[in-house]
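Sample intake — DUF3597 domain-containing protein
Collected from: Ramlibacter tataouinensis
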Amino acid sequence: MSILGKIFGRIFPKANAAQAPAASPTPAAAASQPNPAVVPPQQQPATNAAAAGAGPATATIERVDIEQVLEGLAAKNPQKLNWRNSIVDLMKLVGMDSTLQERRELADELGYTGDKGDSAAMNIWLHKQVMRRLAENGGKVPADLMD
């Protein structure tokens, strides 16, 4: 599994447990729909009656509030982690290895073209890219975390 995939896997399941669903689908409907936490929005099935073709309207899938999920994890963590600005602290918060080697691998995975020897610049870029990718894949991320 990719490093970014591990980050997603550690954030999105927490969100599913922490956030109450807007409407509870029938067991048959729930079984036939993939987990929105692991399916990019462009591949998620339509959830409204017009797209489905018939039947009553169903609830739309709400975006995962990434800030809420991470704040919840931070509240339970004994360390004071600055996940809002630090990729190292973000990785620690979700229980991952945050070594320079792991971050360099994440940089390769995300297409970083800068100097990996300049870890400060790489870390800033990584944090922004992870936040952007979370937003692109079903996460609601405050704009200031992606700038």
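Post-analysis note: The beta strands are 64-65, 139-140.
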